[in-house]
Amino acid sequence: MYRIPKIIEALTNQFKKCWQYQKSTSSKLSFYHSIKHTFNREPYLYLCKGFSRRYSTTKLRISAHDLHIEKGRYSNTPREQRICAWCQTSLGVETIEDESHVLYVCDLYSKQRSKLVKNLSQMPLIEMSTEITDPSNINETNLKDYLMEILSPYSTVIPQNHQSLHIHCHRSLNIQPNTPQYIQFQERRSYAVNCACTYFLRCSEERNSFTEDIRQRNSNARTLNNLTINLVRTSRIIHN
Questions:
Q1: At how many degrees (to 10) do helices 180-239 and 51-61 cross?
Q2: Is 40 helix (H, G, I), strand (E, B) or coil?
Q3: Is 86 exposed, middle or buried (0-12, 13-18, 19+ CB in 10 A)?
Q4: Buried b vs exposed e over 55-69: b needs ≥16 C-beta within 10 Å?
């Protein structure tokens, strides 16, 4: 009976080491490695309301998406050529379409980004003795510092002197369970998670709409091209 827990502990530690090594050495998981540092279940998986929100969030976090940074792998396209179609066509800028570009930079998602910042900045305050957690300092410039902390508070590596929002992390807030403050904290935590997951979903929908529009235009162009070719062939037959 004594040896079984030791064996389980050894196997668990070995698994975590393999997990850490594989995500740190895989080029496919570079984004995942940058946001996931602790092997545990993230709060957004049970706080996010709605399968589609949770699904879209997880897909982007683990790079199981159709962004060019991922699609380019299957066609052996060099990394620097996996360009964002929106930035290329609308701005004339060639930028790699990866997860960070979509979430924090690309103009295609600017409305959704502004909406996320607005929703997060309207969260009620949590007041505790000498500490007031103020979400009003969230903006599009520092969103990158906070978005993953909302979804993965226990995986985020917070640098020294970093003013964390403490939206989730009850380790730092030291809230006692089953108290009015704890209930308020859980409600605020759930609100923040759902705002973030909704943003992931809306970005996915925005990109799908843009991609479908490109497909439709290409299809129309091919149809017009085929029609022109057929008209030319018909014209030659008539004249001959």
A1: 80
A2: coil
A3: buried
A4: bbbbebbbbebebbb
128 is written with which tokens?
A: 């505790």
Give the length of the chain: 240
Cα 3 versus chain centre, distance:
42
CA separation for the pair 96, 81 (Å, rounded): 7
- Contacts with 33 (C-beta within 8 Å, 6 or more apart), sequence order: 23, 24, 26
98-108 pLDDT, tens per residue? Answer: 999 999 999 99
Count of C-beta atoms within a 10 Å radius of residue 43: 20
The rounded distance, in Å, linking the Cα atoms of 216 and 232 is: 24
pTM over 0.70: yes
Q: How many CA atoms lie within 13 A of 182 on its CB side?
A: 8
Continuous segment of H or E residues that includes residue 128: strand 126-128
Q: Which residue has the tokens 């929002």?
A: 165
At 35-59, the pLDDT tens digits run 998 888 888 999 999 999 999 999 9
- Cβ neighbours, 10 Å, residue 19: 12
Query: What is the pLDDT at residue 81?
Result: 93
CB within 8 Å of 188: residues ≥ 6 apart: 123, 124, 126, 167
d(CA 158, CA 152): 12
